[in-house]
Amino acid sequence: MKKIVLFLFLIATLIACDDGDVVVTSFDFDDATLQNCGGPGSYVFFKINTNSNESLSLLLGTSDSIFNVADTLSFQLDGSTNFLNYRTFSEAPTASYFCNSIPPTSPTVLQDYIGDDGIATLIVLATLDDNDGIEEDSESNLDTDMDGIPNYYDFDDDGDNVPTAFEIGPDPENPQDTDLDGTPDYLDADDDGDMVPTRYEDTDADLDPRNDITDVTVGADYLNPAVSTETIVDEYVLHSYSTESAINLFLTNVVLTNGEEQLTQESLPFGSINSVFSGTVTITPER
């Protein structure tokens, strides 16, 4: 009787193995530095354990610019557009292995598990600055001209095509108010109070009201209440702002597959990068 039970147990074990082995494992990448390369269409994040010649790499195929604005982004791993790789090598790879469009032939990949299920969560911490000299709360969503860009990083807060930095005047603590209506020029859509919006006092329609001057003794028409020539201009000038971003990246409910074998991870912290992007962003708001 004992032999029959043992025989049946062995058969059940073999059948279970034929359906694929599920292994819950822990990766040893705590001391490895998270690195990244690529851009829209192919963002790559990777960690290398040089002691054990293994790597974790994540590709996100989104075409969006993901580092420009503070946000929490989630990506479903699908094995094609967004996927994770766990690899072991004949020797430790370098960053060029992940960042070249065609991976080098060396080192040799010994094992390759593809993550086609799970969630990658990217937390972007971004500092945005329009460099206009106005101290504004980055937590505020105030958008005076309703162009989709909050004032704190809006190059032109009132949408009149005159940059805020130009409109505040020499003293940011006491910004210029040409028509003395209590609203400073940088927030006033009609700076001289002549009932013609500043953006429309642009006779040559070049998106810059500052160079349209009827009376040189007074200055630009948009600051001259005696001139109210109107030219309909419903476009915004090109905006720019500087940004510096950091990220935190982690994965949940990951399933990595290599043939019949699966590796699973309920929670996999991937790491952080303190300065993942630093530069100037240019956009043109749409009305």
Automatic annotation (TrEMBL):
Residues 174-183 have a biased composition (Acidic residues). Residues 163-183 are annotated as: Disordered. Gene3D superfamilies: TSP type-3 repeat. Residues 1-18 form the signal peptide. Keywords: Signal. One of its GO terms (molecular function) is calcium ion binding. The keyword Signal applies. It comes from the Bacteria. InterPro entries: TSP_type-3_rpt. This is Uncharacterized protein.
